[in-house]
Amino acid sequence: MGRERLMGVQGIEALFNECRARPASGAARRHGRELPVIVLLGPRGSGKTATLNHLGYLASRRPHALYDFASAAPRRPFEVAARLAIGLSLGFPRQPRLRFPRLALGLLVVRSGISLDEAEPRRARAALRAALRQARESAPADAGARRAGAALTLLQDLNLAQFPGLSLLVGLVQQGLPRLPVDVMWRTGLSWYGGRSGLRPIDALMALNELAAREAEAEARGEAAGDRAVDRVLCAAFVEDVRAHYARHGRDRECAVLLDNADHEAGRAFLDLLMDIREENAAERRVHDPLLVVATAADAGRVPGPFAPVPSGLRVVGPEEASYAAWRDQAPRPAPDTSWRWYPVRLRDLTANEVAKLGADTPGLPHLTPLVHRLTYGHPWSVRRLHDAARRAVARHGAAAELHTLLDHPVPVPGPPGAEDEQPTELPLSQAALDYLLRDLSQEDQRPALVVCAAARAFDTAVDSGLLDGFVLRTQDTLLRETGARLWLVDPVPEDAGTHGGRGSGYLLPTGHPQPLPARPVLHPWLRLLLLDELARRPDGAGRDWTAVHTALRDWHRVHDRPLDAYYHSLALGDLEPVVARLATSLSTLPGTDEWLYELYAITAAPMRRPVDPAEPPARRAASLARELAPAAFADHRALSILVTSLWLSADPRNRLPAQSPELHYTIRTMFRELGVHSHARAAGLIHEAAKYEARL
Predict the structure, then answer these.
(1) Please, which of 145, 196, 232, 691 could form a disulfide with 140 given CB 3.0 to 4.6 Å?
(2) How far is residue 566's CA from residue 242's CA, in Å, rounded to a whole number?
(3) Parallel, antiparallel, or unpaired: how do β-strands 425-428 and 255-260 relate?
């Protein structure tokens, strides 16, 4: 099977290769250079693991190691370091093997089961030598056996096999000791432990042995871990082994450690300790290790990087803006804390062109690419799921498959663990996607709270307006923070012709309107669409249903003098008469056409409770809906009424097929022109806006 085709990661590739390149000469070569911990951030389904695996492929000819904190059992930092050492010590043709004499000796003292007698240093030294030789002699002679050992270690990390406690040590020694005399390892490791503690080398090892014994006893009693000195010593040995190797050998690339799901508790424990060790080495010895760490996280609240305002709470850059120089330049000198050593980079959504390339192998679906991109806004996992669903729909129903209702198509959903032999159940694509995207929420009550909050245009408004009243206090306190930390809050999306399927996105400046919308974070449009669909399915009278929630928001905005948002929720409720009356008045009272267009698009971006009706084409539905919902406005302002309902329908991308000339475009274009004919003061601007909905040839 070929590697997964990735899009939108070129900037991350460039950053990775830039940070991996070793300094050519000079002091940076001798003492190393500062390296960031690159954290790839993204909500669930943004391609973090796939991107990390891709970086592993790029680094496959140099020392690298990958560790997944989610799939492996919880491990202490020194155990993580030992598993990374096994991966880094694998051999490559015509390259010196990376050795870990200090770490291996420390593991021998900590995990071999021997007990060193402080009163008998000579006997302790002999016991250590004997254990070291025994581990050396147990190493398999051929490469096949070493590969088998590595495979077994992987199975252990995936909780698929049980091993005796000494297997990790033996595996590391097998990788670290072939053709390396025991005495060499003894001298290297022993001198380092003595030099860092100020004790005699054997006394330092006996102290480490005693520390490990005390920590094991405390753990057996169920006591809190506290400051685990053993972790600090062994992780420092791991870092020093890497640094010392690169100081001796002229490698062209730093070694890479790729850590998936590093926002788990064990991931934070390991990385926090690594940061402390780096800070200590830089401050006391002015040396830097050649260890490039790339981690992934879905919870920005678990990444202690430079602070920034909401929504994520982190100073985050996009992949195209990220570079080693940018990371160095953004840090103050001197850096006040270790947060500046972290470099959070947010994975971006796919562009329309990238979605088209991913869907190029889907024949017979000329309308698929714009639909998938506008539905998902390029969310990578969702793009692939919609492509798969469309292929299944065409296979079942042929070219006439109804893609307007793609979110209702059934998709297979795997069962719980242990039920692999059972027939998978099927759910509508919208429900299956929502279940996947919100799987990481920490509380059961947060999903229904998010459904209610999705009705608000800006997420802050949902909190400020009291929509969360009635939910448990913990949900009220944590929902905004966790939604931002989970990276589901984004900058406001444009509300203009481009968003409705036309051209010219971003041309309306909010500062031009007398009462512009506040630029506050909004829910990711794809997640919001799915949540609104769930809200729309609630029956009226059920409490927090569509009518009750939008009515509460409309009234709150009226009280706080936010007319555009108030009319936005009026339209969501189907109250078209006051909307048309407002726009008819403002067409002549606002300073210019751009201000009126801003108002028009801001209001007609409102969600529609039942936007899709395959039995009635959207173009015909626009006129009938205008006549049904606002008979008085339809009689007095026919063109404006139909324009408002057409734009309202087109706010949902499922109403905008086909690709080259969406069904509503002719109606929108015609109504703009007709409005321009009867509005002499605005004629040129309205005719120019109509051109944005011309067919794309």
Answers:
(1) 145
(2) 61
(3) unpaired
**Can you count the helices (H) and strands (E) in the chain?**
30, 9
Report the C-alpha gap between 494 and 342 in whole angstroms: 31
Q: Phi and psi at residue 342, in whole multiples of 5°?
A: -90, 145
- Distance between CA atoms of 587 and 643, rounded to whole angstroms? 13
> Would you list the DSSP string of 457-517?
SSHHHHHHTTTTBTB-HHHHHHHHHHHHHTT-EEPPPP-STTTTTSS-TT---GGGSSSPP
Q: Is the peptide bond before 578 cis (omega within 30 degrees of 0)?
A: no
- 209 and 116 Cβ atoms separated by less than 8 Å: yes
pLDDT bracket for residue 165 (50, 70, 90): very low
CA dist 574 → 244, 359, 643 (Å):
70, 36, 15
> Six-digit token pair at 557?
């905005």
Residue 653: is it exposed, middle or buried by C-beta count within 10 angstroms (0-12/13-18/19+)?
A: buried
Q: CB 368: neighbour CB atoms within 10 A?
A: 22
pLDDT tens figures, 14-42 = 999 999 998 776 666 666 789 999 999 99
Give the separation between CA 463 and CA 456, rounded to whole angstroms.
9
Cis, peptide link before residue 424, omega less than 30° from 0: no
- CA 70 to the chain's CA centroid: 15
CA dist., res. 581 & res. 566, Å (int): 14
| Confidence band, pLDDT 50/70/90 cuts, at residue 121 | low
Q: What one-character DSSP code corresponds to residue 399?
A: G
What single-letter DSSP state applies at residue 126? H
Residue type at 593?
A: T
The H or E element that residue 344 is part of is strand 342-346
Res 209 pLDDT > 70: yes
Tell me the C-alpha distance between 389 and 409, whole Å.
Answer: 7
Average pLDDT, the chain: 84
Q: Which residues contact 344 (CB under 8 A, 6 or more apart)?
A: 39, 41, 300, 303, 305, 314, 315, 316, 317
β-strand partners of 38: 294, 343
Evaluate the CA torsion angle 405, 410, 416, 420 in order and state its sign. Answer: negative
The per-residue DSSP string of 564-596 comes to HHHHHHHHHTT-HHHHHHHHHHHHHHSSSHHHH
- Cβ atoms 471, 462 nearer than 8 A: no
Sign of CA dihedral 235, 238, 242, 248: positive
| pLDDT tens sequence across 215-235 | 888 777 777 655 688 999 999
d(CA 58, CA 6): 13
pLDDT surpassing 60 at residue 118: no
DSSP strands (E only) in 347-451: 410-413, 425-428
The residue among 284 and 178 whose pLDDT is bigger is: 284
The answer for residues whose C-beta is within 8 angstroms of residue 644's C-beta and 6 or more apart is: 571, 576, 579, 580, 583, 600, 603, 604, 626
Sign of the Cα torsion 685, 687, 693, 694 reads: negative
- Can you give the length of the chain in residues? 697
Q: Give the pLDDT confidence of 510-551 residue by residue, as tens digits.
A: 878 999 998 899 999 999 999 999 999 999 988 899 999 999
Among 258, 276, 294, smallest CA distance to 38 is for: 294
Helices within 60-118 (DSSP H only): 77-88, 101-111
Q: Give whole-number Cα distances, 348 to 56, 250, 262, 495, 587, in Å.
A: 20, 36, 19, 20, 38
pLDDT of 638 reads 96
